């Protein structure tokens, strides 16, 4: 059974389409924050909404973050945002290596570079890992191990505890399909085993492991009760305050 404070992260992706709607969703979540005092809540809106949402995020425990970042501080990188820029507008974490970005060509090496840069700036990296399909032979474990290793090999062991891993099987994202509780428990043990190879079991226990992929108010409780997870990374349901709050409540211990 995990004993760390649970964590639920909302990944809004490229939604909603107006600032007005973004403010409405955020305000509704903010209004209920007393109900989830036992769980950390973080939200990654489209970065363009960050300044406005930061402004209304006063006196709350909700953390705001971004969905991607460029690892360099400034320069000739058209269309990119740097860490100091988003930090100025209240970002305390960044999702890294989401499968939708990896699908567009983001490599393990690029993900690792971003994690190193985030840790230097004391911003929490939320590193997404996950296979596109589960083969009978279990080759997906090799794939996931490579994703984890490429990050850990670049980071000082003392900083491992500052990384959050989100296991998101690609086939479960936005599809309504979930990994089974057995799959999740097995994967959590596997991730911890890989981390233990690099550091100690104690360190492996300190790193938060989230699950993502079609999590909603109706299945979060059962998945969380497996005891294998520190929380969830939520896509679609994070835009529906009632659903999102039900997920948060399911993890409140
Ligand atoms: P989903 O997305 O909850 O809509 O499946 C999860 C994610 O992509 O992080």
| Cα Rg | 17 Å
Which H/E pattern describes the elements?
EHEHEHEHHEHEHHEHEH
Helical content band = 25-40%
Low-pLDDT segments: none
List cofactors, ions and other ligands.
2-phosphoglycolic acid
- How much of the sequence lies in strands comes to 15-25%
Total of helices: 10
Major sheet size, sense and barrel closure: 8 strands, parallel, barrel
Mean pLDDT: 94
Q: What form results from the Cα inertia axes?
A: globular
- End-to-end distance: 12 Å
Number of strands: 8
Secondary structure layout:
Layout (H helix, E strand, L loop, with lengths): L6 E5 L7 H13 L8 E5 L5 H7 L6 E4 L16 H6 L2 E6 L2 H4 L5 H13 L3 E6 L9 H14 L11 E4 L13 H18 L2 H6 L1 E5 L7 H6 L5 E4 L6 H11 L2
Parallel strand pairs: 1-2, 1-8, 2-3, 3-4, 4-5, 5-6, 6-7, 7-8
Helix pairs in contact: 1-10, 5-6, 6-7
Keywords for this entry:
253 residues; alpha/beta; 8 strands; 39% helix; globular; binds 2-phosphoglycolic acid
Structure description:
The protein has 253 residues and is an alpha/beta fold. Helix content is 39%, strand content 15%. The protein is built from ten helices and eight strands. The chain has helices spanning 19-31, 50-56, 83-88, 99-102, 108-120, 139-152, 181-198, 201-206, 220-225, 241-251; strands spanning 7-11, 40-44, 63-66, 91-96, 124-129, 164-167, 208-212, 231-234. Strands 1-2-3-4-5-6-7-8 form an eight-stranded parallel barrel, surrounded by five helices. Helix 5 (108-120) packs parallel to helix 6. The radius of gyration is 17 Å and the shape is globular. The mean pLDDT is 94. The protein binds 2-phosphoglycolic acid. The site of 2-phosphoglycolic acid has 13 residues, from strand 8.
């Amino acid at each position: 059974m995990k004993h760390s404070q649970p964590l639920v992260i909302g990944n809004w992706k490229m939604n909603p389409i107006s600032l007005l709607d973004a403010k409405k969703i955020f305000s509704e979540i903010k209004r209920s924050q007393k109900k989830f005092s036992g769980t950390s809540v973080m939200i990654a809106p489209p970065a363009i909404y960050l300044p406005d949402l930061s402004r209304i995020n006063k006196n709350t425990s909700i953390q705001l973050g971004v969905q991607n970042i460029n690892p360099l501080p400034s320069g000739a990188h058209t269309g990119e945002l740097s860490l100091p820029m988003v930090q100025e507008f209240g970002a305390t974490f960044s999702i890294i290596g989401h499968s939708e970005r990896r699908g567009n060509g983001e490599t393990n090496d690029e993900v690792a570079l971003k994690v190193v840069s985030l840790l230097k700036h004391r911003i929490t990296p939320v590193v997404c890992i996950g296979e596109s399909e589960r083969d009978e032979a279990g080759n997906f474990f090799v794939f996931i191990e490579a994703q984890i290793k490429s990050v850990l090999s670049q980071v000082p062991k003392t900083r491992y505890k500052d990384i959050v891993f989100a296991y998101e099987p690609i086939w479960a994202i936005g599809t309504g399909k979930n990994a089974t509780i057995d799959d999740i428990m097995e994967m959590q043990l596997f991730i911890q085993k890989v981390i233990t190879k690099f550091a100690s079991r104690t360190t492996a226990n300190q790193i938060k492991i989230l699950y993502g992929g079609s999590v909603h108010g109706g299945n979060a409780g059962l998945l969380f009760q497996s005891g294998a997870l520190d929380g969830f990374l939520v896509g679609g349901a994070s835009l529906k305050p009632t659903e999102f709050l039900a997920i948060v409540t399911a993890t409140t211990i």
